[in-house]
Amino acid sequence: MNPDTTANPQANPTSAREIPSEVCDSLTLLHGPEAFAKHLQQMLASGRRYVDILSQQLDHSLFANRAVCDALSALVRAHRQAEVRILVKDPKPLFGKHHALLALQKRLTSKIKIRQLKIEPQNENQGFVIVDQRQLLLQHHDGEFDGFSNTNAAPEAKALLEEFTLLWQRQSAEIAELRPLSL
After folding, report:
1. Which of 43, 71, 167, 176 is deepest in the core (most CB within 10 A)?
2. Element (H, E) at 103
3. Which H/E stretch holds residue 158?
4. Which residue has the higher pLDDT, 63 or 17?
């Protein structure tokens, strides 16, 4: 075994709690809101067309992050057929305070759609983001920042997207507070 390719934990004096993630090829284990926001921003920056999000209430530290919203804005503006679908389990905490993603959605209503779930998904604790049907950011327990990012997760993303699409089409509803005003 080549010592140059093997990670030596004693070669780096940084303590384990300062390291936000552990990397293995396309899979990165994530711990903490900063690591999640960083990887989400990177996924969105490399994305081309589709973003699907399932979240309890679009946690501010992740989805109202300025860099994340800027990357999402750039993604949807770069391709005229870009589409962002967001399913929220409980939208009530979103209202009454500024949320950068909601502000972006109001400016780009034809590209970014947010709906409320009427039922719990199969794994009600998970939250995830899927970019271009192959990149996956998953929180094991939505609202807690422990999970992973996988930039090459097409099989896992396909299974989650099948459930997501079914929920989007049959078990979700528009959120009245987000409907565009008609004149």
Report:
1. 43
2. helix 100-107
3. helix 154-170
4. 63
CA distance 68 to 58: 12
pLDDT of 120 reads 75
All structural domains of the chain: 24-176 (3.30.870.10)
**Amino acid at site 6:** T
Task: State residue 27 phi and psi, 5-degree precision.
Answer: -100, 130
Going along 18-139, which residue ranges are E strands? 21-24, 27-31, 50-55, 83-88, 112-117, 127-131, 135-139
Q: Residue 146 burial by CB count (10 A; 0-12/13-18/19+): exposed, middle or buried?
A: middle
pTM: 0.82
